[in-house]
Design a protein that fits this description.
- By secondary structure, the chain is an all-alpha fold.
- It has two domains: 1-130, Tetratricopeptide repeat domain (Serine Threonine Protein Phosphatase 5, Tetratricopeptide repeat), CATH 1.25.40.10; 203-311, Alpha Horseshoe (Serine Threonine Protein Phosphatase 5, Tetratricopeptide repeat).
- Helices cover 73% and strands 0% of the residues.
- The protein has 16 helices and no strands.
- Helix 4 (60-72) packs antiparallel against helix 5 and helix 8 packs antiparallel against helix 9.
- The chain is elongated, with a radius of gyration of 31 Å.
Length: 326
């Protein structure tokens, strides 16, 4: 049998007082509950405590007894409900509630029960926002990440990484994954590239895929943004296009993801065309046809079309008049 948890000091004192009192029926039920609790008969203690409350024991300590016993049983929702009722009687009970639920969260973390840990933490924070959760930041982050709650995972990952001094490769990679999942590939790349520097070449296969994928996405977005600005102003955004090119070239340099090579070469051709580097643009479009599995793919067809437009000077001159190729 597990050793019973100790009741908070104020509850212990009240238990001793109630054992010596000769009050009404709710006091008798509470006394029986204290005896059962001391014997680690939690279900029996809970029944007696709830009976005491139902018989009129709506004071904060009777309610807290019920809540604490629910906490011992790992029943977070019920514990929160009764602690909430105790807090409405006496707001000072919020500290007791937060401490009790946080203790449960730490026990759950030690057992690797992440669901219970996260539920208990959420309940504790509802009573005392701003609780220090550094010791549980990483398991909380991983719990939220595994459940697709990336926005909730990120603050905990950042807290865990700050505590580690940005020196744990696995954690740096995980933060990159969170940023990638929420659609912030630029921040993701900062962490993926950092991770890549921290590990041996044989450990880079997975991160190269993420870097290549995110680099392609950022490059495409920058090219589209520069094109939109050119349509409005009539002026070529060379800085934006050069940045876009550097991201796309990173994808091509890594050769990952392999299924994006044709699209990355097509994107490179489009950017070079906008910059007026016609020969390099034609080369990129030709290379698309070399890496695509079939000339009938949409990427291959687009590359052939753009090759002809650039070579014969048709298609995009009106967009930015000073540009030198199609």
């Amino acid at each position: 049998m597990n050793r019973p948890s100790r009741l908070p000091s104020a509850l212990v004192l009240l238990c001793a007082i109630s054992a010596c009192s000769s009050g009404g029926s709710e006091e008798t039920a509470r006394t029986r509950g204290d005896v059962a609790y001391a014997r680690d008969s939690l279900e029996l203690a809970l029944a007696e405590y709830r009976l005491a409350v139902n018989q009129g024991g709506e004071d904060e300590w009777s309610l807290a007894r019920v809540a604490h016993t629910y906490t011992r049983l790992g029943r977070v929702n019920e514990a929160s409900e009764f602690y909430g009722r105790a807090v409405r009687v006496d707001s000072a009970m919020a500290d007791q509630a937060a401490a009790d639920l946080l203790h449960l969260a730490r026990e759950a973390a030690d057992r690797d029960d992440r669901f219970l840990m996260a539920s208990a933490v959420e309940a504790a924070v509802s009573f005392r926002p701003g609780l220090g959760l550094e010791s549980m930041a990483l398991p909380l982050a991983r719990h939220h990440f595994e459940n697709g709650q990336y926005g909730r995972a990120l603050p905990f990952f950042l807290k865990a990484m700050a505590a580690s001094g940005d020196s744990v490769p696995e954690l740096v990679f995980e933060v990159g994954q969170v940023y990638e999942e929420i659609g912030d590939c630029e921040q993701a790349l900062v962490h993926f590239e950092r991770f890549r520097e921290m590990v041996e070449p044989r450990g880079r296969t997975q991160v190269d895929w993420f870097i290549g994928n995110c680099s392609y996405r950022v490059g495409s977005e920058l090219r589209e943004a520069a094109t939109d600005r050119a349509e409005v102003s009539g002026a070529l955004d060379r800085t934006g296009l050069e940045n876009a090119l550097s991201y796309v070239d990173r994808t091509l340099d890594l050769g990952e993801p392999k299924n994006l090579m044709g699209q990355a070469l097509l994107e490179r051709g489009e950017i070079l065309s906008l910059l007026g580097r016609c020969d390099a643009s034609l080369e990129a479009f030709e290379n698309v046809l070399r890496v695509e599995p079939s000339e009938t793919t949409s990427t291959a067809r687009r590359a052939r079309q753009r090759f002809d437009q650039v070579k014969f000077g048709r298609g995009l001159e009106a967009l930015v008049p000073e540009r030198g190729c199609g």
